[in-house]
């Protein structure tokens, strides 16, 4: 699909502040409010904009430990394990990666004691997992808030 510079500018502006009104966006791109509304609806209809959301600072809500996991899974169990882990409230995101049935998972918990409980009682309890490797984030320099154009 082809998108022009105005579509790209609208997406950049919405990535920076998803609460901008159609009027504010129209002023930034030099179109009418109605034209901007139509373009945004078109981007939504085509699936370019999946949803509008808010980015929450997890640490401000007491989730002070952020860890990434590489989880190897028995191939026949991959879908079930992925869904089981995706349903866990501590799992912020989970992706299937290239390699031997590997899942990449981001987990947010309150403290290291909760991380230990998550690993020992929730993660290791899932049938089909063959290997787990983890890394704890020490400092965040940049976080994904959407695709940058």
UniProtKB/TrEMBL annotation:
SMART domains: HTH_ASNC
Gene Ontology MF terms in the entry: sequence-specific DNA binding
Keywords tagged on the record: DNA-binding, Transcription, Transcription regulation
Pfam families, A to Z: AsnC_trans_reg (PF01037), HTH_24 (PF13412)
Transcription recorded as keyword: yes
An example Gene Ontology CC term for this record: cytosol
CDD domains tied to this protein: HTH_ARSR
Residues in HTH asnC-type domain copies: 3-64
BP terms from Gene Ontology: response to amino acid
Protein name per Swiss-Prot or TrEMBL: HTH-type transcriptional regulator LrpC
Gene: lrpC
